[in-house]
């Protein structure tokens, strides 16, 4: 039996121009719009997803950390970090959340799967010093060093022991996705390329009995955005981001699929209700 459960690790707020980029605006224009925008969306969850599978426990993304509140943790020279507000209490980090479920993150998570390396998906890595850390090779390549810091990553805050198992999308096509990468031997947990939010972004497909869970990371911020064909303000490639949204909808049209983005307030309720994407 395979199960998927949502774990909230605090809240994030973003500008309205980040959640939805203006149609017709390119990469630079969308960034300018975010800086000019005076309106904030409601606090959004920072979600991770725990997959319990016959081959082990797998965690998709790690959320963020309370250390965002420590002066100097975020690079003060980077104005982007003033356009996003992260609020995480220590007990809201993924480690304490798992401990509350009776799972020791240091020893009882077989693998952590990262959809990408943005700080609100890697902030909880410290809790998993003995787990496999699986991440997309293409996204890791653009997440290190100064380039990574300029694009929403905090490589200088990654654990010193981090040596991720970097994977390429070199497996067969899956529906509208041109490639894939299996994670489990039975192939029921697999990665597919979902670029657009950032280069090399991946989503995690989990095939259960009669239902498929699509753990979208930030390929879309919400199911509503997906259905409306609305890409975000972060993307450097709006056309690719839109193509990814279309591919997700095409995939969901072929098999019953529950969509689970990392910042969708409705995702946990859909998961609990088994509500598939129509």
TrEMBL record:
MF GO annotations: hydrolase activity; metal ion binding
Alphabetical keyword list: Hydrolase, Metal-binding, Zinc
Keyword Hydrolase: yes
InterPro entries in the record: MBL_superfamily_lactonases, Metallo-B-lactamas, RibonucZ/Hydroxyglut_hydro
Cofactors: Zn(2+)
Signal peptide range: none
Family: Belongs to the metallo-beta-lactamase superfamily.
Name this polypeptide is given: N-acyl homoserine lactonase family protein
Organism: Neoroseomonas eburnea
């Amino acid at each position: 039996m395979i199960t998927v459960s949502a774990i909230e690790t605090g809240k994030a707020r973003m500008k309205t121009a980040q959640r939805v980029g203006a149609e017709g605006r390119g990469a630079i224009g969308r960034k300018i719009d975010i800086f000019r925008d005076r309106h904030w969306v409601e606090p959004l969850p920072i979600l991770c997803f725990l997959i319990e599978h016959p081959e082990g426990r797998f965690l998709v993304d790690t959320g963020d950390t309370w250390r965002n509140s420590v002066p100097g943790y975020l690079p003060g020279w980077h104005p982007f970090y003033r356009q996003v507000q992260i609020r995480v209490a220590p007990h809201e980090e993924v480690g304490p959340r798992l401990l509350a479920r009776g799972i020791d993150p240091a020893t009882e998570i077989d693998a952590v799967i990262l959809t990408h390396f943005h700080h609100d998906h890697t902030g909880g890595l410290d809790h998993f010093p003995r787990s496999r850390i699986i991440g997309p090779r293409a996204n890791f390549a653009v997440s290190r060093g100064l380039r990574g810091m300029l694009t929403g990553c905090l490589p200088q805050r990654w654990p010193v022991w981090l040596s991720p198992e970097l994977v390429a999308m070199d497996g067969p096509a899956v529906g509208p996705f041109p490639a894939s990468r299996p994670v489990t031997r039975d192939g029921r947990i697999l990665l597919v390329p979902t670029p657009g939010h950032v280069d090399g972004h991946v989503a995690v497909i989990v095939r259960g009995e009669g239902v498929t869970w699509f753990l979208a990371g930030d390929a879309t911020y919400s199911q509503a955005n997906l259905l409306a064909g609305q890409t975000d303000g972060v993307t450097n490639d709006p056309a690719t981001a839109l193509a990814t949204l279309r591919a997700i909808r095409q995939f969901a049209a072929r098999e019953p699929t529950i969509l689970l983005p990392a910042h969708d307030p409705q995702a946990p309720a859909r998961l609990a209700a088994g509500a598939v994407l129509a």
